[in-house]
Amino acid sequence: MERYDVVVIGGGPGGYVAAIRAAQLGLNVACIDKRGRFGGTCLNIGCIPSKALLKSSEKFAQTRHELAAHGIEVGDVKLNLKAMMHRKQKVVDDLTNGIEFLFKKNNVTPIVGAACLRSANRITVKEGKGNSRDIETKTVVIATGSSPVDIPGLTVDEKKIVTSTGALSLSKPPDTLALIGAGYIGLEMGSVWSRLGSQVVVIEYFDRILPGMDGEVAGAFEKILIKQGLSFKLGTKVTGAKTGRSGVKLTLEPAKGGKTESLACDVVLVAVGRRPYTAGLGLEDLAVAVDQQGFIQVDSRFQTNISGIYAIGDCIPGPMLAHKAEDEGVACAEIIAGQSGHVNYDAIPGIIYTNPEVASVGKTEEQLKAEGIDYRVGKFPFSANGRARCNRATEGFVKILADAKTDRILGGHVLGDDAGSLIAEIVSVMEFGGSAEDIARTCHGHPTLSESVKEAALAVAGRPIHI
Ligand code: NAI
Prior knowledge:
The protein is α/β, with parallel strands linked by helices and 467 residues long. It is built from 14 helices and 22 strands. It has helices spanning 13-24, 40-45, 47-65, 81-106, 164-167, 184-195, 215-227, 283-286, 322-336, 365-370, 386-391, 419-431, 436-440, 451-460; strands spanning 2-9, 29-33, 108-112, 114-117, 122-128, 131-142, 146-148, 161-162, 176-180, 199-203, 231-233, 236-243, 248-254, 261-265, 267-270, 274-276, 309-311, 350-352, 357-362, 375-381, 397-403, 409-416. The strands form 5 sheets. Strands 1, 2, 3, 4, 5, 6 and 17 form a 7-stranded mixed sheet that branches. It is globular and about 65 Å long. The chain starts with a strand and ends in a 7-residue tail after the last helix. The protein binds 1,4-dihydronicotinamide adenine dinucleotide. 1,4-dihydronicotinamide adenine dinucleotide binds next to α6, β12 and β18.
């Protein structure tokens, strides 16, 4: 029988990173995934293909609407969606192949098949066509990720009613696209199809977009998206859908109850969150503890209630983000190897890759108020940043929240061009337990967008230079 020190079930960003780190630490490791291609949701049908389409659609929209302002005249601009999708697929293929290369380099054994736990030390892998094999292991890391949440009454067919998977592969821009959920997926995919010519309507249960984000940032972002052509039906829930030959008729109702209305559209994207995916793993038979929503329960060392079985990533509680899963993968592998791996959950950035981007780390103002923490705010608009003006990217601002007494940074929020990269500075300073003054006293290159982070830090103490 095959024997390993560590078997990782699931080859997404959590699983494949855990496998590589464990192998780096000298352990004999296998990584099992049933998809046939490693990389999980993120590389195959999530982060990577969506970012490829976001970039392509942004170039299309900029060519149509932006270049003239730079003194560049173009003729007819045509969309070749097939070529755009082909490029997206090439990016996915190259990156998923890259994981197999990394496995080879690090001596991780890749196994394609569906894993089922027989005990903490034995796994059966169903390889298809009736073939299966049993493997033995000292430890198991479950990294099986998540799947989209459905809405009762809406049957996903990935053609007219789609999840993010179908939304990444539509054969033409729908005339009207209804999005259910103004979260990460809804706003990113809504931006893609709006830029490619669809009329996009976003239906959100709460009376604001991005419920977990800082309210001021979300409000300013909503205004920008409306200017870009998206429309919003906030405080609204979807109670039914009828699919016909020409499209879908949705029944909408105010979230607080009241008169229903209907909305006709060509395609509906359901993006109301994701839930842990653990089907077929055999968790019930081993009595691995899960919470009410199905998240696997782990201790601070990522171990479940069964000794030797660990879990990381989207299938355990916490933000469902690839980089959170990666960091947990590293920490879990280090713990299994006898080291003291650790994840700082207070410094995990969240980024929405729209244009402008939205990035956030740590506490929002709403959270600080609710927790009764005395804080100071420093803000700086990109309209006052020289480089943003050169780039014609003046929308948005940087906002830093610091403890009123100690000046320690408690949260950072950026709405603007390249916010996802700019937030990294605030994340690093938070990781070191740093203060707004630390950023304010650090020399930033000129002219760069990062000077706005410095100015927001200066503004915490009421002394920005450029506003
Ligand atoms: P989400 O949690 O970001 O947003 C879901 C939205 O749907 C929320 O605003 C919620 O209030 C709303 N909602 C829930 N039920 C509803 C209903 N019945 N009717 C109307 N609105 C309803 O979830 P999303 O966008 O599906 O993304 C799933 C996960 O994937 C998230 O946890 C996110 O972190 C991750 N993701 C991350 C990305 C990134 O890092 N850029 C990109 C895409 C997804």
